[in-house]
Amino acid sequence: MKLLEDRILKDGNILGDNILKVDSFLTHQVDFKLMTEIGKVFAKTFESLGITKVVTIEASGIAPALYVAQELDVPMIFAKKHKNITMTEGILTAEVYSFTKQVTSTVSIASKFLSQNDKVLIIDDFLANGQAAKGLIDIINQAGASVEGVGIVIEKSFQDGRSLLENSGVKVTSLARIKNFENGSLNFLEADA
Ligand code: 5GP
């Protein structure tokens, strides 16, 4: 997605060997015009699959996921990272190792929001080693629902996430695919959409 790649080049900051900071338009401050376009591109990619729910993980997956859900006209559910006393009924959980925070946390979704009739699209802001998406797939499988695809805003293709997900039979669509960070500059592979 050219608009997204241009924005990453303009406003993204490379931290260390393998982290991209995009807090001015995606992970902290959010550009709703860019999110609107992202929502449209993902919705077009997945519109023929009969998606009934969009699922993401808090916090920074929520913005893109909500715009995709709006375009597909289905609910968006975000997995919670912290147990909440209001979550009293059945919850589905998975352990997820966070690449950026370097801690494992239990993420959860209330079972009442997913059923075996659901066809789910997973959306997330980044794909690194695939642990967040793998945890969401685990939860969706526990509900007996089907995972129809994974949509990623920014994939770091030099990490293992994509192959992990594809080897488990899930189709991945990424709007920007970063090949590497070399001498402080950023190189892209051809994106999926
Ligand atoms: P994974 O689970 O695929 O290893 O990592 C994906 C999750 O880690 C995303 O939900 C995202 O929040 C975070 N993440 C991974 N890499 C980056 C990065 O380079 N920059 C930012 N801002 N977040 C990242």
UniProtKB/TrEMBL annotation:
Converts the preformed base xanthine, a product of nucleic acid breakdown, to xanthosine 5'-monophosphate (XMP), so it can be reused for RNA or DNA synthesis. Belongs to the purine/pyrimidine phosphoribosyltransferase family. Xpt subfamily. GO terms for molecular function: xanthine phosphoribosyltransferase activity. Homodimer. Xanthine binds at residues 20, 27, 156. Its main location: cytoplasm. Residues 36-154 form the Phosphoribosyltransferase domain. The keyword Protein biosynthesis does not apply. The lineage of its organism: Bacteria, Bacillati, Bacillota, Bacilli, Lactobacillales. Pfam families: Pribosyltran. Its EC number is 2.4.2.22. CDD domains: PRTases_typeI. This is Xanthine phosphoribosyltransferase. Pathway: Purine metabolism; XMP biosynthesis via salvage pathway; XMP from xanthine: step 1/1. One of its GO terms (cellular component) is cytoplasm. Keywords: Cytoplasm, Glycosyltransferase, Purine salvage, Transferase.
